[in-house]
Specification:
The complex is a heterodimer of chains A (220) and B (293). Chain A is α+β, with helices and mostly antiparallel strands and 220 residues long. Helices cover 29% and strands 33% of the residues of chain A. Chain A has helices spanning 19-36, 49-58, 60-68, 81-87, 159-169, 200-207; strands at residues 13-15, 42-48, 91-96, 105-112, 117-126, 129-135, 138-139, 148-154, 174-181, 187-194, 212-218. The longest helix of chain A is centred in the N-terminal third of the chain and has 18 residues, at 19-36. The radius of gyration of chain A is 17 Å and the shape is globular. Chain B has helices at 6-15, 20-32, 36-59, 71-80, 88-105, 121-133, 137-157, 162-165, 167-185, 190-202, 220-239, 248-261, 278-288; one strand spanning 109-111. Chain B contains 13 helices and one strand, in the order αααααβαααααααα. The N and C termini of chain B lie far apart (47 Å). In chain B, helix 7 packs antiparallel against helix 9 and helix 10 packs parallel to helix 12 (248-261). Chain B is mostly helical and 293 residues long. The chains are: A alpha+beta (220), B mainly alpha (293). The interface between A and B is large, with 47 and 63 residues.
Chain lengths: 220, 293
């Protein structure tokens, strides 16, 4: 079940004109920023499929940029995102790809701030609902059926245990968990699906754990 | 999840002797962990946004491209003259649906139901029903929960994305949701709601997504007018006792299969259908200048 809440169907409240190409795009941008953990200084946005063909008419570009700058789907500043990007010293490069993508509404976002880089692929599946399907080349498998934590962390012993312990102390049960890394001792990724709601305080506490670089909550 | 399809939804409402909106609220409590009050107040906020968009559109807006805007005002004035062919109720729904989508095209604030391109259909029907059935504010909120329940089934079993399933998945779904909720508001049974949804959706099967210049304007705004009127007619038919020979869930599955069979040119790529007519090409050039390619 990709759609769980009635607010996926009645909602979101948003600036027009398209829930998938505008509101969904803003959410992909916001998720990318949250995964990066800070505002990038340069971003390359690659559009595929319907996104590549129609992004100008739908404001997909302005929506993703506004999302990267922290705007929600109903923020009227979406309309002036290019000006907003200038004010925040965010450089933007947009590329229309002819390559085949897994979903007609796919965007790849490559972010950098001079010191670190992150690459995120998001798809907008309809009605403003999105999925992040790839982070730094790691394919993500998120069922979307439960609240999900995506944690980028330094690969050290104890990193996984400290996250799991804090979840246990808050009586949160892990339903599914995946860990992956590119190279030993470098950055790694934890994707944790849990059975209970996760409040903002817990996210805050988790983000302060040793070795945790960024933490993002997705899903219901 | 309490229900996976329309049959289960109807059965649950019948067994619990309650309305479909109530099943949706119970499931929402279960899924989100929020309280009943929080869930109602969030939906009430959606209702407020819908109402503001209708009001704004009926005052007159214009999109940046200049392709749409002002039609809602014309219809409103026409109704005032007192002599209509399709009846005041339907035209009222049409004017309010068009009003919402004109606001959407002008990058105004709307509530996606289930999408932005189809955002006018449900409010169009709801605010027309407001003048016919005189519901309380709470009943109007419940209308949205019922509409949402049917929309959830389509979203999970088929699609609500034009890029994946064509316009039938967007305005078709919206119209089906609106007709089912309208039946409930008018006092019909859960099964009659399902029949209204099935009849509406059957009449919108095959509708492609072919936006001129890739903008959510032509033909999207007027498709919402068609969606709203379709919803009103099907609701009346269901309340009259007309049933759908093909059960609602099978109609939804047919819609899914039709969407899968649609070529990409007719799924929100602005490369086929109305989008590839000579006039559409000329408009596209006027709006964006010469094509990049």
């Amino acid at each position: 079940m990709k759609y769980r809440s009635v607010s996926d169907i009645i909602g979101p409240i948003m600036i027009g004109p398209s829930s998938s190409h505008t509101a969904g795009a803003a959410r992909i941008g916001a998720n990318a920023r949250s995964l990066f953990g800070k505002q990038p200084s340069h971003v390359k946005i690659i559009f595929y499929g319907s996104f590549a063909k129609t992004y100008k008419g739908h404001g997909t570009d302005v929506a993703i940029i506004a999302g990267l700058l922290g705007c929600d789907t109903f923020d009227p500043r979406i309309v002036e995102a290019y000006e907003l990007a200038k004010e925040h010293n965010l450089q933007i490069e947009i590329i229309e790809s002819e390559m085949h993508a897994p979903h007609p509404n796919t965007a790849r976002i490559e972010m950098t701030d001079g010191t670190s880089n992150l690459e995120v692929v998001g798809i907008s599946i309809g009605g403003g609902v999105i999925e992040i399907i790839e982070i730094n080349g790691f394919p993500l498998k998120i069922s979307g059926e439960s609240p999900t934590l995506i944690i980028i962390h330094e690969e050290r012993y104890g990193a996984i245990a400290s996250v799991a312990t804090m979840l246990a102390n808050n009586q949160i049960n892990i339903g599914h968990m995946e860990v992956s890394r590119k190279e030993r001792g470098k950055e790694a990724l934890m994707v944790i699906e849990v059975d209970q709601r996760i409040d903002n305080q817990l996210i805050e506490d988790l983000s302060k754990l040793d070795h945790v670089i960024t933490i993002t909550k997705m899903g219901v | 999840m309490l229900f996976k399809n329309v049959a289960e939804l109807v059965k649950l409402a019948d067994e619990n002797n309650c309305r479909i909106s109530e099943i949706m609220v119970r499931q929402e409590i279960d899924v989100t962990g929020l309280t009943r009050e929080e869930i109602y107040s969030r939906m009430e906020k959606n209702l407020q946004i819908m109402e503001s968009a209708v009001i704004r559109g009926l005052e007159g807006v214009k999109s940046r491209s200049g392709l749409t805007g002002g039609a809602a005002v014309l219809i409103k004035e026409y109704i005032k003259k007192g002599k209509t062919l399709s009846g005041e109720g339907i035209l009222d729904a049409v004017s309010k649906a068009v009003a919402t989508n004109e606001v959407n095209a002008a990058m105004g604030t709307i509530c996606a139901t289930p999408t932005a391109g189809s955002a006018g259909t449900v409010p169009g029907v709801l605010f027309a029903a407001k003048d016919i059935l005189n519901p309380t504010r709470e009943q109007m909120v419940e209308f949205l929960f019922t509409a949402g329940a049917f929309g959830l089934v389509v979203a999970n079993n088929a699609s609500i994305s034009g890029a994946a399933g064509g316009c039938q998945a967007e305005v078709g779904t919206a119209a089906g949701m609106a007709s089912a909720a309208l039946v409930e508001m008018a006092g019909g049974t859960p099964q009659q709601s399902a029949d209204a949804m099935a009849i509406t959706l059957k009449n919108m099967l095959g509708l492609v997504c072919d936006p001129v210049a890739g903008l959510v304007e032509v033909p999207c705004v007027k498709r919402n007018a068609a969606g709203a009127s379709n919803a009103m007619i099907s609701a009346d038919m269901a309340l009259a006792g007309v049933t759908s020979r093909i059960p609602c869930d099978e109609v939804i599955d047919a819609m899914y299969r039709i969407g899968r069979a649609m070529p990409a040119s007719l799924r929100e790529t602005a490369e086929g259908g109305l989008a590839s007519t000579p006039t559409a090409k000329k408009l596209e050039e006027q709006i964006f200048g010469k094509k990049k390619k």
